[in-house]
Amino acid sequence: MRIATWNVNSVRARGERIAAWLQRSDVDVAAVQETKCRDEQFPTELFTDLGYEVAHHGLSQWNGVAVLSRVGLEDVQVGFPGQPGWGDPEAPEARALGAVCGGVRVWSLYVPNGREVDDPHYTYKLRWLEALRAYGAERLAEDPQAGIALCGDFNVAPQDDDVWDMAEFEGSTHVTKPERDAFTSVVEAGFTEVVRPYAPGPGVYTYWDYKQLSFPKRKGMRIDFVLASPALAARVSGALIDREERKGKGASDHAPVMVDLDGGPGDESSAPGTAGLAGA
DNA sequence: ATGACCGTCTAAGACGGA
């Protein structure tokens, strides 16, 4: 079974491109972030026409998360228990959607950006990650064998090698110790980041700014991850950051990230001739 | 070449992104 996570930066601006990528990449389950639309604006038919079921949660032109699956989509959860809110009055944003697909609970997560270190949005980001850790820890305490994938744009570069030049990030969000500690806490709650072993750095990223020729100059950040529960991590057989999809006109500023799992629907051993992911 | 921001809301700039 092949799962993917991708911050698409508007599903309306890029729907055809997303659909073509899904089909070309033989993806079974996709966790999608930054759809930038309300539910009634989501181009559902683009994906149902390809055999995917669709769950989307979007409240405005901001944020928006979806799960697309062709291996079943059940028990949809809008947000996770304890998810912090934003605004006045404070309310949860459209940043988390979970569904059980092919026996795996797949979460599409869009962690708040943080904006600036001295911005209230930064503390919101830290609270959000702490709440995610607490939720994940609770789920694993209830069922240590649960297959859970925390997929998404974490908006944290956990290691110095995850940005092109640490000196350029002096005083910036995404690389501060509190953010990295918050990310590490989710990992230490039992969720292994399963992509890095197959796509090691340095110089391997998932995001490149649209500005200043960042992509051709290879100035990127690794901020999109798949964090797997112990039972799920044991099934991972490969992973790939598809930087080809960042090329050309009409690309998202994030690349899709794919992970292959042994067993479950679409297992390679039961589908001869299907090539697995080779890694970086 | 992979090429010098992009998307949304709204009608010219503001906001968010990271």
TrEMBL record:
Matches recorded under InterPro entries: AP_endonuc_1, Endo/exonu/phosph_ase_sf, Endo/exonuclease/phosphatase, ExoIII-like
Family annotation (CDD domains): ExoIII-like_AP-endo
Family as reported in the entry's similarity comment: Belongs to the DNA repair enzymes AP/ExoA family.
Cofactor: Mg(2+)
Endonuclease/exonuclease/phosphatase domain span: 4-254
UniProt-recorded name of the protein: Exodeoxyribonuclease III
Alphabetical list of Pfam families matching this protein: Exo_endo_phos
Listed PROSITE patterns: AP_NUCLEASE_F1_4
